[in-house]
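sry for the spam today, last one i promise. struct tokens for design, 281 residues
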């Protein structure tokens, strides 16, 4: 996760602090040299449990992290933490709120910066949390439980929401559910903080949709599938919030035989970058 400073970009790195064998202490902060790409360690923000995915809102000055755990405030769910960032790139904890689902693994901020969208992996749900003017998170204003399963005997016995993000128009939010092999499209009500089911897209059985990204022109979207190492291309109709399947390609060389699990996809400029990571979870 990058800040937008052009002189010396700041890189924030989320980690798992409670994974078996982990020596991570929290969230790590680095400075990047734009000329060489060299990273220089600045500090670690300790005491943040499993900050596995991070997001910076449009208004800057704040950063948000999911805490990928299944037990927060004596309830069977994870949490989301808010931090302020000062001019010295020091982070201060503002507050934390329940994610209303177990093991939140993804957070995005809709384009006005008023709401955070969270995907809860283990419970297979998505939530919407308001962002206050001081950067703190308010209690969730909506939570939607996904349903369904698919063909993988271990990882698709139930729903597993793996990402949720706003579309380019900020009218819709799109969630990828790895367990149900679906994209679920919600209409966002930014006045009341609600998500309304709008449509869904069935993905090929056993694919395991993980992360979605939109092309900079807003007319196309790309979905990385964790379990079968494929990338789906869609034409996106922002007026109607619908997807039309265009292409599915393998992310691996034809002679690759080892285990592979895809992790992330992002667009850069006018192109698309595929990311397949051997052994990623």
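last one done:
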């Amino acid at each position: 996760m990058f800040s937008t400073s052009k002189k010396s970009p700041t890189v924030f790195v989320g980690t798992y602090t409670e994974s078996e064998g982990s020596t991570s202490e929290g969230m790590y902060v680095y400075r990047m040299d734009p000329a060489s790409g060299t990273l220089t360690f600045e500090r670690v923000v300790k005491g943040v449990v499993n900050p596995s995915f991070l997001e910076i809102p449009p208004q800057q000055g704040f950063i948000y992290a999911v805490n990928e755990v299944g037990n927060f405030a004596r309830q069977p769910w994870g949490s989301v933490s808010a931090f302020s960032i000062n001019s010295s790139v020091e982070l201060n904890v503002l507050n934390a709120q329940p994610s209303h689902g177990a093991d939140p693994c993804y957070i995005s901020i809709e384009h006005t910066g008023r709401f955070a969208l969270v995907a809860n992996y283990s419970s297979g749900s998505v939530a919407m949390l308001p962002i206050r003017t001081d950067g703190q998170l308010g209690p969730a204003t909506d939570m939607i439980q996904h349903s369904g399963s698919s063909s993988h005997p271990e990882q698709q016995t139930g729903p597993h929401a793996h990402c949720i993000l706003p579309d380019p128009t900020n009218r819709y939010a799109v969630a990828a559910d790895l367990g149900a092999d679906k994209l679920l499209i919600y209409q966002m009500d930014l006045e009341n903080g609600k998500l309304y089911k709008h449509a869904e897209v069935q993905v090929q059985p056993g694919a395991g949709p993980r992360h979605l990204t939109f092309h900079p022109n807003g007319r196309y979207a790309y979905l990385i599938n964790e379990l079968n190492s494929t990338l789906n291309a869609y034409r996106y109709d922002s007026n109607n919030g619908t997807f039309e399947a265009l292409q599915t390609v393998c992310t691996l060389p034809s002679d690759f035989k080892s285990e592979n699990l895809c992790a992330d996809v992002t667009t850069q400029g006018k192109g698309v970058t595929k990311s397949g990571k051997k052994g990623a979870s």
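The CA atoms of residues 48 and 105 lie 14 Å apart. ok im logging off now
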